[in-house]
Specification:
Elements lengths: L6 E4 L2 H23 L2 E5 L3 H10 L4 H4 L5 E5 L1 E3 L9 H10 L18 H15 L12 E4 L24 E2 L2 E2 L4 E6 L1 H6 L2 E6 L5 H9 L20 E5 H4 L6
Parallel strand pairs: 1-10, 2-3, 2-5, 5-9, 9-10
Antiparallel strand pairs: 4-8, 6-8, 7-8
The structure holds 6-phosphogluconic acid (6PG).
Length: 249
């Protein structure tokens, strides 16, 4: 990736969470001023969790008109909403409850339902709730993503082609590694989003990140490389450890 203008490197994971909270609240304020509301797909993972906690506190809690924000999810584990593995539960505990977000403004993936049915229902809901962008695909204002040390993002894991010709908006792939299904947005929806931000930190991500951004294209091995073919740029928020092997020019 030669263009580094959308890449921000900060000292450590604590600074990254702050940078992510600033980015999300900034996009929310700007988008609400422009179109009256803000539709965001949340990510699971540790950095987002720390950012959600910050967003629920001053100054962010007071800077955004939270009643104009609608919350969706980029992926979910196939568990009930009160399970400790649930991304919904994490976001609820870290941010949604503290900000007193109305339940009607939170669109969770139903991890407790049969996976394929839950994916179809979520796709249908997205078509109904979101404005349609390029090619008639529902368009988020912002999709938040993380990256695993294996190059996965959302619940698009290595081993199958994320561009498999299937035009679904939401899928429920079986993830060998965890011997379970997950529910995830597909590249089609991620590409249609107005903005995408990836936040990732730590030495466990260093090698994958260099391969993802600077290595040859191979999205079957590094699913997060789907972002390299997004028409609009992606914002990459990294800490120094994760960015350590990136080419400097
Ligand atoms: C999840 C995710 C997943 C996550 C990455 C990175 O539900 O776990 O949405 O794709 O973003 O695994 O997670 P960390 O930021 O915790 O490393």
């Amino acid at each position: 990736m030669r263009d580094r203008s959308n890449l921000v490197v900060v000292a450590n994971e604590t600074a990254l969470a702050l940078e992510l909270a600033r980015f999300v609240s900034g996009r929310a304020v700007e988008t609400i001023a422009r179109r009256g509301r803000f539709d965001i797909a949340l990510a699971g993972g540790s950095t987002p969790k720390a950012a959600y906690t910050l967003l629920a506190q001053a100054p962010f809690a007071n800077a955004v008109s939270w009643e104009r924000v609608r919350f969706f999810f980029g992926d979910e584990r196939c568990v009930p909403p009160d399970d400790d593995q649930s991304n919904y539960k994490m976001a609820k505990n870290a941010m949604l409850d503290a900000l007193r977000i109305a339940p009607a403004a939170v669109h969770r993936m139903h991890g407790e339902d049969p996976p394929q049915a839950a994916a179809r229902a979520y796709a249908q809901m997205l078509r109904h709730e979101l404005p349609l962008g390029a090619d008639g695909v529902p368009a988020f204002d912002l999709v938040m993503l993380g990256m695993g040390p294996d190059g996965h993002t959302a619940s698009l894991f290595p081993g199958s082609d994320p561009f498999d010709g299937d035009a679904s908006l939401v899928k429920a792939p079986y993830v060998e590694k965890f011997a379970t299904h997950r529910i995830t947005l597909t590249p089609c929806v991620i590409h249609a989003a107005d903005e995408v931000v990836v936040a990732t930190a730590g030495g466990a991500k260093t090698e994958a990140l260099a391969a993802v951004l600077d290595g040859p294209l191979d999205a079957r091995t590094y699913p997060i490389q789907i972002l390299r073919s997004r028409a609009r740029p992606t914002k990459w928020l990294l800490d120094r450890a994760a960015a350590a092997l990136l080419a400097t020019s």
